[in-house]
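Protocol step 4 of 5: obtain the predicted structure for the target chain.
Materials: sequence only (see below). No template structures provided, no constraints applied. The aim of this step is simply to have a reference model before the mutagenesis design in step 5. Sequence pasted as it appears in the construct record:
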Amino acid sequence: MSSGVSTASFGFDLSHQKCVNAMMGRDENSEDDYEEQNNQAKRVTEELRRATQLLRRYRELKQTRLYRLLHKIKPITGSLMPTNILRMDKNYHRVYLIWSPLMAVMHKIDTEPRIGEVGAKITASDLNTAYTSFLLTLSGFAAHSLGFEEEAPNLFIRKSDAAYVRNNIQSNLIQIEVGQEVDYHITVSGQIYSPLEAGTADGCFFFDGQAIHWHQKLTDSEIENFARKLKTRESRGEQQAVEARKYRALRQAMTEENASKQAPHHIILIVPVLTALDDQSQVRFVDEMKSKVAELKEHYHANVASICMPLCRPNEQAVTDYGYSSSGDIAFFPVSMYDINSYRRLRLMLLRFITEMEQDRCPCCGEQMIQDKNGGYVCYHCDNLQVINTICSKCGSSYKYLSYGLSAEIRQKMCHELDKKDATDESRFFRQDSLFQYKNIVPMHVDPNRVSPVCPFCASED
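Step 4 output (structure tokens):
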């Protein structure tokens, strides 16, 4: 590795850099601290303004004639008689179809005790579902912290570099797809018709009047659901045959276009595991989970599988592993609502694969990076973040890592933090986690002179 390349730190984003500087004894009245406090005050003011507007709108809606009338009406319950108008009319028929299951659900809600009430039963399945939902929400927040905005349910887009993150739950497992948008499109002409009006969008689809566009690799079901919009339930005879031909032509054209381009994407498989480890179960737990999750990883074609645990006690801390290549791409780490670093551990997973996809774009913000004289890339939007390509001197593997400049004083204090041997200090794991472990896409080693990467393939220090 070139000695001219700065390796003075690893993956701090701007906000974390300021936090670290503050922890290491920076002046509380520094210009950066003042700027941060000023920005926080502006954000609070803006949120208060929005909350005031929403409260005013809520009060206005409560004064409407519709609300006053409906507020006095008693809830309507019971079954509906299947009259001809309910069974045959296209509008009333929908009411009839939804009424019975809706009443069944409402009855269940009214009669069953809620979780936390006397008589409520909390099963392992309930807990697992709740924890999976928590992980799904946290992964969305992790994407948001990297500049992604939610465009549709569980679909996050970063417009600066056309990257996307799509989350999906299947069998209580979370699949996170990290990819880059590609302009898929089919021209509407001849036998190809659009179910959308010109200038309108539906989810990830947009019709500009000439072509239907989408930007992510579609699944077969997504293509099927969109093409079906050309078919109507009420059509009969020749009209039904025409709609079927349009549907088949659109589905075939979308399938061919979807297969014609290879958009870069990676899959992260999140495996929630409700466990509380003890001293005797740590090794057995890791061995058993690696065996089981390796099969799931292969089944879902995942690049890495992350086993997430809801507790962060010393026993869970002891098995923490961020799943670099030398670990078989299987990660173990705690994700708890009581630990602020939890979402950052999920963000680390996203950052690894975003960095693999990007060439001259910053993985943290998506903005254009500038290539330096040593062949690395620098982002001036993220406090001079560097993305550096290097080759392991031992195994010859090529990999990337992130770097920032830190002073010798900061490096010395980081070394002091690592050298603490007090095993009874419960906060030691969190201090090290905050300062070191989740800050980079590869392992790092720190000494007073430099912070250097550790090869993720052979675990040797460069």
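Step 4 remarks: Residues 1-30 have pLDDT under 50 and may be disordered. Residues 76 and 103 are 10 Å apart (CA to CA).
Proceed to step 5.
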